[in-house]
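Slide 14.
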Amino acid sequence: MTCTTDPAAPCGTCGLAGRLLCKWDARALRAFLVPAISLCLLGLGAMALTGLLSGAWWPLAAYGAFMVFFFPVFEIRILCSHCPFYAGEGFMLRCPANHGAPRLWRYRPGPMRVWEKAALLAGFAVFGGAPLATGTYNIIITAGAGYGAITLAAMSGLAAATLFVGFSLYVLLRGHVCPRCVNFSCPLNLTPETLKREYLRLNPEMQAAWERAGYRLD
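Slide 15: predicted structure.
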């Protein structure tokens, strides 16, 4: 267990309250889920339109399969199993991002490995890049097939909405989540070193695992 998942942790005296996203926060979860789910739905909608326009349904099937495998299963292994939130009890994960995901893997208090970071970045690229690429493709085939100005405008609007939501999610993560996240080895993490050290000192098991991996507090 970490101080993040320990209900008896003396959070009022540690000095990290408000500086790190180290405790369950329903508002943070809602702020993350709104753009994340919106981007997913816009992507699936764009791929369904691709199927209707061109008869190619494989992008929708492939993206749907990716979503089912990556977030509830693979991301939990390569990213979440290293997070202090994962050290809690129960079968379901309770955290401000992948809340409700099954804890299929054991807790790994040490930092992520290189292959895990590479796989995570590749997965994020597919998650965000596929909807944007599909929206652009729909504009191209709509313009080329002569569907008319209204259809072209609708496809352009959908692509613009996807771009806006994707950018909003990026701004949220880089501006408000990543600088306070306690999953320190995530390749997107921006938490200052001083806060990392202070948090690790409060969690001896995690500190020991990080030191075994070569990290030094001093």
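Speaker note: The chain has a mean pLDDT of 93.
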